[in-house]
Amino acid sequence: MQYIKHYYVNDVTDDFMTTTNDAPAKRHPVKEIPGIGVKVWSHDPDGIDVCISEVTSKITLSNIEVDDKFAVKILTEDQYNSVINLQKEVATLAEELYPHYGGGVSPDAEYSEPTSDQISLLETKQQELKDLINSF
């Protein structure tokens, strides 16, 4: 398995979207990288959508630079695992604080509002995840 950070592609022009989120239609780079499996969605420091994905080892990958950014950046397994592990931590915290959000919990179940400390911890972890993704 291989791992990448990548931007969306404008489905009309087939250009990587490294400077805008606005397009008539956007897609993951499935034409350019067959078999891509998106695992994490985030934003770069400019607020542009970016993803972390798995790609089968059968595909030959290379870094692709567009507009002074890597539209596709190959990650090491350690980099990928650090993102996935932190994403799981964020998801667990969010589920604990907001059990009704994802469904699966009876609407009649007890619910108490998260404390400001709990919300702060979740926001901190979400920012750590975003910063980690943007460090690659």
Q: Could you explain how this protein is built, in words?
A:
The chain has 136 residues and is α+β, with helices and mostly antiparallel strands. The strands form two sheets. A five-stranded antiparallel sheet has the order 4-5-1-7-6. The longest helix has 21 residues, at 77-97. The chain has helices at 77-97, 116-134; strands spanning 2-7, 9-10, 26-27, 37-43, 49-55, 64-66, 69-75. The chain has one domain.
SSE topology sketch:
Elements: E1 2-7, E2 9-10, E3 26-27, E4 37-43, E5 49-55, E6 64-66, E7 69-75, H1 77-97, H2 116-134
Antiparallel strand pairs: 1-5, 1-7, 2-3, 4-5, 6-7
Helix pairs in contact: 1-2
What tags apply to this protein structure?
136 residues, alpha+beta, five-stranded antiparallel beta sheet, elongated
